[in-house]
Amino acid sequence: MHGNAPFSGPETTTADLSGDQRRALRTSIAQIASLTREFLPDEYVVGSEISSGSSGVQVTVAVRPPAGNPVSAGFTPEFEDLADDDLIPTEDREEVARGLAASAALQVKHALGDDVPETAR
C-alpha cells in the first residue's frame, strides 16, 4: 500500500498556491457567484469556496434555492497551463453561472410541481 494509497504522491493544496494565484482564484469564483446572483431573484442564496482534496485545489460554487435541493458546480483549475490572472477563463465562468442558475430554477419548479397558478396567458 505504499504507492497506491489515495493520499500518496504530489498534491497541490491551497497552501501551495502563490498569493497571486489565490487572489485570482478568489476573484474568479466571486465573479461566478456574482453573475449567478444576477440571473436569480434575491430568494436564492449563492456561495463559493476554495478547498483542497486528493486531486488538488477544488473550487465550488453553490446555490440554495428557496424550495428544492441545493445545486453546486465544482471543478479543479489547471495552474500549469494558464496565467495567474486567467485561472478560470471568462467563458467558463459565464457557462457555470448560467448552468447553476438554470439548475436552481429547475429545482424550484420540481419542488413546487403543478401547484403554481398561471399568472398570464
In terms of topology, how is this protein built?
Blueprint: H1 19-39, E1 45-53, E2 56-64, E3 71-75, H2 90-112
Antiparallel strand pairs: 1-2, 2-3
Helix pairs in contact: 1-2
What does the model show?
The protein has two helices and three strands. It has helices spanning 19-39, 90-112, and strands at 45-53, 56-64, 71-75. Helix 1 (19-39) crosses helix 2. It starts with 18 loop residues before the first helix and ends in a 9-residue tail after the last helix. Residues 1-12 have low confidence and may be disordered.
Distance between the termini: 65 Å
Strand order of the largest sheet: 1-2-3
> How much helix, percentage-wise, in residues?
25-40%
Percent of residues in beta strands: 15-25%
Would you list the SSEs in sequence order as H and E? HEEEH
Mean pLDDT: 79
The rounded Rg comes to 18 Å
What characterizes the major β-sheet? 3 strands, antiparallel
Stretches where pLDDT is under 50 for at least 5 consecutive residues are 1-12
Shape: elongated
**Strand runs, count:** 3
Count of helix runs: 2
**Estimated structural class:** alpha+beta
